[in-house]
Task: structure prediction
Amino acid sequence: MYKIWLLGLIILLNTSLVWADELKIVVVGLFSGQAVVEINHKQRLLKVGKTSPEGVTLISATSQSAVLEIDGQQKKYLLGSHIGGKFSPPPAQPVVSLWPTNGMYITPGTVNGYTVDFLVDTGASAIALNAETAKRLDLDYINNPPIGVKTASGITHAYPVKLDEVQVGDIKLYNVQAMVIDGPEPSRALLGMTFLGQLDMLRSGERMDLKQKY
Result:
């Protein structure tokens, strides 16, 4: 008898899990303190704090949005939002941790798929590459209008260019503005603020963490 009861419980639990995974939910009406939610093609009028027979709880509602809870997790939805019954937290944004070498933060990366060694430079307004590096990366920059920039060797020309893809560790950004400086400087590519400005930069002792914002 015990084995039969246990087998029935296992079947019931498995059925419940499949049911939760197969929930199809659409927010079809929003009011202050109430929401009309279509769950598996059945409309439910939910008031704040009320749970539907399918296990969907209305946490809050306005004429603009509703917060629903399923399996202990809450999310905000607008009118017409389609919701899967299986909730999962958003994926963590990638983080790259750097340690200084002779007081400088140097990291390998790629530009348009080509390998590049970067020097992290928050004082540089943009990613900066010398002419030799730009040619190795097959960048078409020479026909862009130049601007004057100051380097250790004096005033020289720099050419604005847009990089299709820049990657450092697991952080990948697209359409990043850069400058190609006419001449041998900088000897190492500068990872400037057109890249760094799109990240969260955190310091913990000597370690620097770069975290993608979105």
In short: Residues 2-21 form the longest helix (20 residues).
